[in-house]
Amino acid sequence: MGKITLRNVQKRFGEAVVIPSLDLDIEDGEFVVFVGPSGCGKSTLLRLIAGLEDVSDGQILIDGRNATEMPPAKRGLAMVFQSYALYPHMTVRKNIAFPLKMAKMDRAEIDRRVDNAARVLNLTNYLDRRPGQLSGGQRQRVAIGRAIVREPAAFLFDEPLSNLDAALRVNMRLEITELHQSLKTTMIYVTHDQVEAMTMADKIVVLNAGRIEQVGSPLTLYRSPANLFVAGFIGSPKMNLIAGPEAASRGATTIGIRPEHLDISRDGGEWPGEVGVSEHLGSDTFLHVHVKGMPTLTVRAGGEFGVHHGDRVWLTPQPDKIHRFGPDGRAI
Amino acid sequence: MATQHSKTAARLMISPAVILLFLWMIVPLSMTLYFSFLRYNLLMPGMESFTGWDNYYYFLTDPAFAAALTNTLLLVGGVLLITIVGGTALALLLDQPMWGQGIVRILVIAPFFIMPTVSALVWKNMFMNPVNGMFAHIARALGMQPFDFLAHAPLASIIGIVAWQWLPFATLILLTALQSLDREQMEAAEMDGASPVARFVYITLPHLTRAITVVVLIQTIFLLGVFAEILVTTNGGPGTASTNITYLVYAQSLLNYDVGGGSAGGIVAVILANIVAIFLMRMIGKNLDA
């Protein structure tokens, strides 16, 4: 069981208010991702749930019990840290067994659980090594192993993949997602990488300056961002945001159109423009097009799209994919 | 850079320093070695004669030697024990966030800047003196008989004085080691359900082993040669109760005017120090390997 509820949670460091007041429900078995730019309070929020920071005001309920004043160990949560925080002087086996040893579990049960976790995480051959002798991905798995042996109510991940190289990151992303499928335990995952958020989450919580901007499934956030911040943050490359007469003609202060929803043509269309930088990825081509009276627009063309710097092209937005935002930045 | 040519140049450049250091070491050592085989008494100048191993025989069979050896080991061991345990405790306290941390840290380091003779004299006259000392005053205020530390527990008193001097050193080294402990490791241990004591035993202490090793090695080198504190407080007495090997060598050559015997003692001390060093490196040297 791992239902976590935040009621009116506030966090202040002295005068500085990091989290003004926040309500959030996390259902049992959900994979929730906190995403936001650095300094938005997402890690602080995770540490509040873990109990590593004291809540200034409000309540944290875990499975209906008030956990606000509980010490971290009593909350039944396990955390995977950004630096992995493995104990360098202990072997992998001892690292994974540490929480069980602290819980005074008997040896046979400890061995059974450690061997189990090692098998799930492909660590069986490394149990007698020290963390210093492992690669980044293996250390990451040891950290996860140390978390899963406790059979916690929920897992907390604090930017766990940020120290890995790009290829390994994609791998570990899959492994963590698969782990979630097999364990069906609540997971809370903090990241600043919106690709991680989109690919892994059941539910994304977009945070900005300690405030929740929007909560929803990845595709909900993609299809209907609640405001300009979410619109700009979710999606890669970023959504084109256009203010001015073009927006006014559609009855909005700002309109947003994603690069993949702009049709491009060499012959004619709605907005004439000039090609700037083009990025050829093989599968896609990203073109930066200068259109008069608008910021530089990013356009995605499928496959290879042969244009050169300075070529003239026409862009046509797909009318049903235009997002309209009012003067307060909220979606209309 | 590592061409044959640059290597030769490097050797040439560094050789004056190496040769000077080597001479600085080898000349006094060979002179001591030479004197240790001579019958050389300062009261009978010009009467030096070769005596073979006699000086060694007399030094090693002197009952004072056995006492001095025991005292040396007790002194080194006692001071190490106090400074490591006390230093760890102080470092843990100083690592806690508190107001005026900077000032307190400087105050804690202060004893290390006081020269040994001065601190020994201050301890002897202002604290341990059975008539005017602070401890005597406290004892009388509590209605007890003042205790004459340097007469009745000379070695323990000297251990106390030397430990007081070296405690800051241990504290400083251990404090820096504590500050390099990864905070996330402590938090992970906290999440794993480790109590503060368990966190100290399983996380902090293993992290400190290397620093403790450094403290033990460096302090041992200096503690084997403790001299000033003994000279100004007890003069090695009463009897030989607070004589260590260093003091015995001094007494032999400068109080008994027997330079030959003193030199033999000096060579014995060098050999003993090397034995201690070998044992130490065997026991704890592996902690220094990264």
UniProtKB/TrEMBL annotation, chain A:
InterPro entries membership: AAA+_ATPase, ABC_transporter-like_ATP-bd, ABC_transporter-like_CS, ABC_transpr_MalK-like, ABC_transpr_MalK/UgpC-like, Mo/tungstate-bd_C_term_dom, NA-bd_OB-fold, P-loop_NTPase
UniProt GO MF annotations: ABC-type maltose transporter activity; ATP binding; ATP hydrolysis activity
UniProt entry tagged with the keyword tRNA processing: no
CDD domains xrefs: ABC_MalK_N (cd03301)
One GO CC term, this protein: ATP-binding cassette (ABC) transporter complex, substrate-binding subunit-containing
The UniProt record lists the keyword Repeat: no
Gene3D superfamilies found in the cross-reference section: 2.40.50.100, Nucleic acid-binding proteins, P-loop containing nucleotide triphosphate hydrolases
Alphabetized PROSITE patterns for the sequence: ABC_TRANSPORTER_1, ABC_TRANSPORTER_2
Alphabetical UniProt keywords: ATP-binding, Nucleotide-binding, Transport
Domain ABC transporter intervals: 4-234
Domain of life from the UniProt record: Bacteria
UniProt cross-references to SUPFAM superfamilies, sorted A to Z: MOP-like, P-loop containing nucleoside triphosphate hydrolases
Pfam family for this entry, one: TOBE_2
PANTHER family per UniProt: MALTODEXTRIN IMPORT ATP-BINDING PROTEIN MSMX, MALTOSE_MALTODEXTRIN IMPORT ATP-BINDING PROTEIN MALK
Family the entry assigns: Belongs to the ABC transporter superfamily.
UniProt-recorded name of the protein: Sorbitol ABC transporter ATP-binding protein /mannitol ABC transporter ATP-binding protein
High-level lineage: Bacteria, Pseudomonadati, Pseudomonadota, Alphaproteobacteria, Rhodobacterales
UniProtKB/TrEMBL annotation, chain B:
Domain ABC transmembrane type-1: 69-280
Species whose genome carries this gene: Cereibacter ovatus
Transmembrane segments: 12-37, 64-94, 106-123, 155-178, 208-228, 264-284
Keyword ATP-binding recorded: no
Signal sequence, renumbered to the chain: none
GO biological process: transmembrane transport
Protein's recorded name: Sorbitol ABC transporter membrane protein /mannitol ABC transporter membrane protein
Predominant localisation class: membrane
UniProt xrefs under InterPro entries: MetI-like, MetI-like_sf
Any Pfam family the entry gives: BPD_transp_1
Gene Ontology terms: cellular component: plasma membrane
Topology of the protein relative to the lipid bilayer: Multi-pass membrane protein
Family recorded in the similarity comment: Belongs to the binding-protein-dependent transport system permease family.
Keywords: Cell membrane, Membrane, Transmembrane, Transmembrane helix, Transport
Cellular compartment(s): Cell membrane
